[in-house]
Amino acid sequence: MNVEHTGRPAGESHGIRPYAVIIGMMGAGKTRVGKEVAHMLGLPFADADVEIEREVGMKIPAYFERFGEPAFREVERDLILDTLEDFDGVFSLGGGAPMTPAVERGLASYISDGGKVVYLMADPAEAMERANRGGGRPMLNGDADARWKTLYKERDPVFRHVANVHVRTRGLTPQMAARKVMDMLAERTVHVTGSTIEPYDVAIGEGVMNHLADVLGPKPVRVALIHTQPVQRHSDRARTLLRQAGYEVSDIVIPDAERGKTVDVANGIWERLGDEGFTRSDAIVGLGGGAATDLAGFIAATWMRGVRYVNCPTSLLAMVDASTGGKTGVNTAAGKNLVGSFYTPAGVLADVKTLATLPNDIFTEGLGEVAKSGFIMDTEILRILEEHADELRAFDGATFLGSGLQDVVAELIERTVSVKARHVSADLKEAGMREFLNYGHTMGHAIEKLEHFRWRHGNAVAVGMVYAAELACLLGYIDADLVDYHRSLLSSLGLPISWSNGSFDDVLALMHKDKKARGNTLRFVVLDRPGHVVHLENPPADAVREAFERISR
């Protein structure tokens, strides 16, 4: 069938855009670091303050004194918005520029076009010392240190929200900071925000695990590194990074896959944290597949009613699903993920280097969740999957890094995480919109339970999506062509599209225990067109059975 590939919403088309825009507090080193980055890239550099002085024909302190701050902010606003539309280098803004609403909107539009706004998060003491040494800053008239601290309290939350790249520069020379900026500009970052959550970033790229200490921050003394045995190579790297940063590391190995995601395993970890004196200011790092990051998040949410945690997913499935969104939990005899909490991480580091160690079958199962995000919102994902199906199905970790497929996979991760972030931001606790992320999961979770979790999650969800499509077709929401498209796309990726190892009565009983169910009423997530989903409540029993029979043939 023909699927309209609409892609993600974006702003209006623009002409030349900056390679990067740098923001930060006075004294953060925006000009010096920006010049270094531009030099390394062979690009032009522009400093908003210098350009303003050129335009008004006087130094900024003199302009402030003669015309006042409001007049200056108007000039600054117009120059920045013009430069965002017609400059192809590295652009550094004045300290207060992002506080102007029109500038903030302009930066958001720039980001929606794929731009990078870099927040240089300098150490306050270092930044104040540089700001005082530089002089000529009207905003610091009077008690400069006290004024800087007041401005920092006002501006830091805005800067964190505005920027989609956050670079901590404490103790770094301008050259070292520029190299760090360069590395992070090469990464893909999804900024997750929401009215009920602390914002955090999902960093995607080769080597992003190096940011582990930056994300954890200076407060924790002890860090529990929770991981499985098969990812020992990656946990060794994480442990080294943590110890180099000065943390005391408790290495906690859990059983692989769903066997490690139980109350018994969690209880053993709680006992160990108690024995080792973990406090509320200490932290958890979850490293491994989806089950490991789910468990680590659950431990973090429940230990002393919540401690800081960072996820380092090592499988495609974990990168696009379990590690992001704040859903944590364990399985019980009654079903999957029935005990848990909503608790967001401080950050997620999806280091694609870890994918190179994956067997083919573990990589391809993750494509089930990727395809799901294409079906429910971003249909550009479906186009990419179609175009690269043969390469993805034949994934070989030994040749992955440095190949053309690496960038394809990074884009798929970024787009899939963006879909999840959009739903999570609107609905952290799965009261409405977030339930749409469960497309294919009602049947998928039943299959996992009946198979005693021998089936991998992405494979079960693939079959679950075909089931949901069949059900939607039977009830007139979609046509048979879209059902066939589900089958052809998923099978082209090496994913299963049928299942016949259980009875309908057993499946139905588990569906009634699904988290979306309300009382005795079954609820499903179904498509009514590509890229758009709706809730289906209490469908006719004969349709529920017929859809099951169609995936069982």
UniProtKB/TrEMBL annotation:
Query: Is-annotated flag, keyword Zinc?
Result: yes
- Binding sites annotated in the UniProt record for substrate: 49, 73, 95, 155
- Record GO biological process: amino acid biosynthetic process; aromatic amino acid family biosynthetic process; chorismate biosynthetic process
Q: How is the cofactor bound?
A: Binds 1 Mg(2+) ion per subunit. Binds 1 divalent metal cation per subunit. Can use either Co(2+) or Zn(2+).
EC number(s) stated in the UniProt entry for this protein: 2.7.1.71, 4.2.3.4
Q: Where is the signal peptide?
A: none
Its UniProt entry gives the catalysed reaction(s) as: 7-phospho-2-dehydro-3-deoxy-D-arabino-heptonate = 3-dehydroquinate + phosphate; shikimate + ATP = 3-phosphoshikimate + ADP + H(+)
What the record says about family reads: Belongs to the shikimate kinase family.
Task: Provide the GO MF annotations for this entry.
Answer: 3-dehydroquinate synthase activity; ATP binding; magnesium ion binding; shikimate kinase activity
Query: Which amino acid positions bind NAD(+), per UniProt?
Result: 256-261, 290-294, 314-315, 327, 336, 354-357
Q: Which GO terms describe its cellular component?
A: cytoplasm
Domain 3-dehydroquinate synthase C-terminal: residue ranges:
366-517
Q: Which residues form the 3-dehydroquinate synthase N-terminal domain?
A: 252-363
This protein is called Multifunctional fusion protein
Residues given in the record as Zn(2+) binding sites: 369, 441, 457
Where does the chain bind ATP? Answer: 27-32, 137
* Biological function: Catalyzes the specific phosphorylation of the 3-hydroxyl group of shikimic acid using ATP as a cosubstrate. Catalyzes the conversion of 3-deoxy-D-arabino-heptulosonate 7-phosphate (DAHP) to dehydroquinate (DHQ).
